[in-house]
Amino acid sequence: MELAAFLLDFILHVDKHLEAFVTSYGAWVYALLFIIIFVETGVVVMPFLPGDSLLFVVGAMCGVGLMSFPLAVGLLFVAAVLGDQCNYSIGRFLGPKVFQWENSRWFNKKAFDQAHAFYERYGGITIIAARFMPFLRTFAPFVAGVSEMTRSKFTLFNLVGGALWVGGIVTVGYFFGNIPFVKTHLDKIIWALILVPGLIVIFGAWKARRKAASAATSS
Description:
Low-confidence stretches: none
Structural class: mainly alpha
Helix content: over 70%
Strand content: under 5%
Number of helices: 10
């Protein structure tokens, strides 16, 4: 219970926690940030760690000179890319082990073939867009691995998505994170960064489900 309370407090007040960490430990903050971003993107059971809000706050801290902008962007880009590669590899390795393939009642060959075809055709935009979606950011590379998306194709879009996500959000934080209104309402902005993308995904899934149900009824 105490751990959950601490994690919630860290997510909602990540600016204060990071500033205190920098004051106490200096450059070790880069190692801490690397670990958080790597674990959040690289371990499928850790989707609740802060991602977007953390990058935004890092940008704001760079804006006031507490951290180096190029070092932070470069290091966190590497962490994000390696995290997704790790998550993809876990999915690629564990998929056959978990489902036991055709010998398991849990394995659906048709569903697997559809997932594989989807990721081969639309996996690029999925990997890039998922970077900006909490929870999906953690699961998308894992599913890409399970569905055996081509590694070279995954790596290409992983690099593009990582650059857009890290570079984009840190830059936004750098230019806008220290505006008084933003600093005053940062907790609400963090909630928005968590909830709004999730609501968009839920609405999209609901709309797609209705469309599929309507098509099935009409046919």
